[in-house]
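Listing S7. Sequence submitted for prediction.
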Amino acid sequence: MHRFSATSKKAAFGSGALEDNSMLIAVNRSDGLGGRLLAMANAKSLADRLGYRFGFTWSSRDVTDEGSHTVDVVTKIFSADFIEKHWLGDKIDAAGMGVLGRSAFAPSDLAATAREGKLRGWICDDFDVLDFFRDEGVQPVRRSETLRAFGFAPAVRQALDAAGKCRFPGPMAALHLRSGDIVRGQYRRRLIFADKVIPSTLAKAIITELASKGMTTLLVGQDRATLDYLGAETGALRTDDFGAGDFRGEEALSAFFEMGLMARCQQIHAGTSIYAMVASVMGDVPCMGSSALFGKQRAAEIIMEELQAHRAAYHPLEAAFGYQWAFLSLEDEIGPAQAKELLRGAQALDPENDAYDLKMAATCFREGDYPTGDAILKSLMVSQSRRRSKIPLPMMHLLTERIGAYLTMVRDFEVFFAAARAGYPYAMACSAFILLEVLEDKTSAVEMAKRLVSVEPGNPIFRRIRLRVRLGKKPKTGRLARARWRLRRLRLYWL
């Protein structure tokens, strides 16, 4: 039986796959545990339905990135037999592979592609891939049975079995309170992932509402202090009450134990967290967002009431996220006064978060108060330039950096442009960089930067911005392109 090196970095197929010449449906993700498992459940259930091979990639080496601490090595997550049959190595070369999930497809489409012999198979990483699958007159693809039947490693299976043996006091609903990078880490500055999280400052109201429906709440989350506080205040149960502490120090096993507990609940209340979605699939139970119990306006009111009465009970960044969540939920519906109130609440608790300053400036621009908005941008730009002379400054990264399909400030670009057209220099500085990096309109960006320097010829920040804009958009790939860009930078510097 063929085996390949566990450290292989090239395209590879497990031994079972090599003996089968049928088409492959493969998962090739490199994100967190929940994302990988959900994609695998989608892909394997689809492959089983169609009679194709299933394969997945996973690291064979110790994970050193603390941000991915639950993504343990493949041998600690899956059984030897499952690895033998389906593991493709650390990663695969996607050349010669199609992609599933970007448009509708039917079994006949895939069969026709297979007959053509032009592809080795398909990459199936999309979480919504089954929404694109058309197989009329046949039962929908069921992921739950597929996921539960995965060949997990003995320790993982023990964690899931332990969750299955826990005795619940009655009907339970899980409440997933994600924290981590979105509430306390780098992504709290991006303002684009808030829908993945139910704020902890909304939890008491949710627990009360669930109790009125005859259900006890199971609290699942990352911050023990917050969970302990909510449990003491409401009587909700924590995963520690069912033995989660036995897995402390083994993050992957703890995650499986918690997912196993959630899967046994009648409902799961969460944001759009994939971690909660995996538990939903595992137990074939509904996963609901905050809107299942409260409308956006009411949810924001509840959060504000909770913060007014008990703000000191929450970690400052948990409280700041409450303000952020309320602001983002209502941004299109509230006036400048209420927007500023929410932003000031967040700023007071998280003063290092540039996003709140940028949103405050945009709010001022939106109501026509250009001087105040530009003063906010000036303060931020000057303070950052003292710590970093290189352009772009962190605030400019936040304005223009794309994460997937998302941009933090995209809905505010027009008001920045309006302030720039009115002659306000710091709005002009931001607008020049937006024109270059996002709209890729170098001509307009260069003209804007030229006007900027003419307003304040002696301003060193503006002169550096003009130089950077004249360089053009920095290439993200290609050593030769990057080398040429650096050479152009040197030439322009001495002009």
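Caption to Listing S7: primary sequence and predicted structure tokens for the chain studied. The CA atoms of residues 37 and 365 lie 44 Å apart. Confidence is low (pLDDT under 50) at residues 1-19.
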